[in-house]
Fold this sequence. Notes:
The chain is α/β, with parallel strands linked by helices. The chain is about 50% helix and about 15% strand. It has a 7-stranded parallel sheet, with helices on both faces.
Amino acid sequence: MSQSNGREAGRDPGRERHRGAVTLRRGAIPSSTADQRLLDSRGRGDWKTRDAWRALRILSEFVEGFDTLADLPPAVSVFGSARSGPDSPECRLAEELGGALARAGYAVITGGGPGVMEATNRGASEAGGLSVGLGIELPFEQGINDWVDLAIDFRYFFARKTMFVKYAQAFVVLPGGFGTMDELFEALTLVQTGKVTRFPVVLMGTDYWRGLLDWLRDTMAASGKIGPVDLELICLTDDVDAAVRHIVEAEAALSGEQEAVREEAVARTGADQQAAAEQASDERRPESGSGEG
């Protein structure tokens, strides 16, 4: 029998999948993911018995995410293709972006995988910023890249997507595929419907995104499916400094609006208290009138 370092030939020690606190290797790795089993409508007979337990597991993912990320500094979520090579234009742009965001005081949140995600995490980490990776269980294991400082592995896409939005002040989207498009349009929908306020969405890679933006303007907006103002939700640039400046200015504008609201509330409370005091004083003052002579 051929052996190497005491291991049987053909046993790949590197193939593994992380599922929460559990690590699975080789034959123990299931052929489907938790998301697949949850959403598979063919398993109707199991819904009454298994979905109740799945609900607890889903809840645990939210609890873990909320507890782990609650103390993050201001952060920006960055998306892009896992398939981009290290020397691709988008990876070079992502690494520069990660560093610029870190120097501006932002933590960087990515999906934790390779490609654009790894480049962004590397740029942030090398610039001394906090580099976060939110991984997901996939049929093909990607693993968390080496430049992530804080990582969470999720079973369920929707729990993970909540963390991308809840703990970020902005989205930056670089060239990517279906997953990138999913995150982009979810962010735009949340801003358009007012579910999140003043949430900058930056597209980087003008050549890549130009055709999509033309279609949004010439087809979707032209037919009334979205309003012209909706196109203003997107900032398109290839300039890293411009992207970071757009995010910083949006945060400053929101902070200014919130401060104005607080000042107005304080002034209104003060006026109400003064009016109440004057009314109480009037009620205590004895009535004046002519007495008997």
